[in-house]
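Database export, one record per block. Field names are fixed; values are copied verbatim from the stored entry.
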Amino acid sequence: MSDKPLDVVAVVGSLHTPSKTAALVDAIIESLGRSLPIDVHVIRLHELGPALAGALRRDELPSDAELELRAIERADLLVVATPVYRASFTGLFKHLFDFVEQYALVDTPVLLAATGGSERHALILEHQLRPLFGFFQALTLPLGVYAHDSDFVDHRVASPLLLERIDNAIRRGLPLIRSSVAERARIERTLDDGGEDAPATVHPSAPSSRGGAGEQPAAAERPVRLYT
């Protein structure tokens, strides 16, 4: 991966401030910044929510909301976090992602995070958030981060165990993040060059240029991931 800062977009699904969810995102971003050069843009739903609430279609959104959607769709890495509300993510969190273009997040790494009143809500990561980003064909990182009320003091992360879980989630996700960014850069270079660096596809039944009996042609190295 190059030294170019990673374009990280964080979505805080809390509807008020101060917020434990926002504090969790801050801790994740801080840990991520110790591992990679990053540029961070944070979307806070308690600020953006009024711009979303009156729209039923994307073309009805005001310009500031459209810019936030484009930031999500172009991110190298998403960090998404929501408080647990009625056993799921908040309605505005879902409403925001209802406007995201269906194929814009294909293979985009996503670190899942959530906060709740007790440990009993921890499976929100698996039964709510992971399926949502599975629909987008995003690359959800292997470990998500769940935090509950006792992990915070005065809306700040105060649990060493939670900080350790955050570091572990990022450490496990780094190989996927790096490979995703490297492949996206390769695809963009190929498109910028008009596909000149990608060999032409050869049908498996075509004869080898070397004339060897039963010899298979080299596999084409065209980009295989879908980016919009």
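Remark 1: The helical segments are 20-33, 45-53, 63-74, 91-98, 124-135, 160-192.
Remark 2: The radius of gyration is 21 Å.
End of record.
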